[in-house]
Amino acid sequence: MEILLFILVSIGVIIVPGPNVLVIVSTCISHGRSRGLQTVAGTSAAMLVQLLISALGTSWFISQLAFGFLWLKWIGVAYLCYLGVNHLIKAVKKIDAQEVTGLGSFQRGFWVSLTNPKTILFFSAFLPQFVSASQPYLSQIAMLSCIFWLLALVLDSGYVFLANKASKVFGEKLVARQNYFSGALYLGASGVLAATEKGS
């Protein structure tokens, strides 16, 4: 029952669009399904790092890192703003979206996900609530982390397929405006990240 509740809550948390989802969708629309999935690989890799930090770190360790998360967040905000403005400039100048490599898509997803401070703080507060005192702590945290990570991987990939479907349905109209759309999504993601409180 506890696991089922954990899964349901995790799904609710994951499907709410945040910086990761907005970057994944934008990349998919601009560069196709493969690049979108490579972006998911990047966000998922960063999430593994975050889960490891939150699982192994003590509350004291996490609190000491909290100040560092603040400047990390603003690096992420600046990066997303750069991507957004860059796409809007290309849209105004009618420059086609430049092709990105698989590694570039992966790195974009990785750094956007890693610079979201709320994730580590959320994991450090969320996961322990589903740990039983009668069972070994690390094994439970490892299992919960794996479940959350797999759910995030599947659901984020789902966004890729939805975005890819949308790009096919709307066809040339969306392609013609993809720089406007991507720019708006990146700026939206920067706004979401900027509004994130380190303690929330």
Structure report:
The chain is mainly alpha-helical and 200 residues long. It has one domain (20-194). 82% of the residues lie in helices and 0% in strands. The chain has 8 helices and no strands. It is elongated.
Uncertain residue segments: none
Order of helix and strand elements from N to C terminus:
HHHHHHHH
Shape: elongated
Whole-angstrom Rg: 18 Å
Mean pLDDT: 78
Helix content: over 70%
Beta fraction = under 5%
Calculate the terminal CA-CA distance, rounded to whole Å.
27 Å
The description of the largest β-sheet is: none
Let me know the number of strands. 0
Number of domain units: 1
What class, by secondary structure content? mainly alpha
Number of helices: 8
Pfam families: LysE
Subcellular location: Cell membrane
Transmembrane segments: 6-29, 41-62, 68-89, 110-131, 137-162
Keywords: Cell membrane, Membrane, Transmembrane, Transmembrane helix
In summary, what is this structure?
It contains eight helices and no strands.
Question: Secondary-structure blueprint of this entry?
Answer:
Blueprint: H1 2-15, H2 19-31, H3 33-56, H4 59-92, H5 102-114, H6 117-126, H7 137-176, H8 178-194
Helix pairs in contact: 1-7, 2-3, 2-5, 2-7, 2-8, 3-5, 3-6, 3-7, 4-6, 4-8
Transmembrane segments: 6-29, 41-62, 68-89, 110-131, 137-162
Membrane topology: Multi-pass membrane protein
Subcellular location: Cell membrane
List keywords for this structure.
200 residues, mainly alpha, 8 helices, 0% strand, LysE family translocator, cell membrane
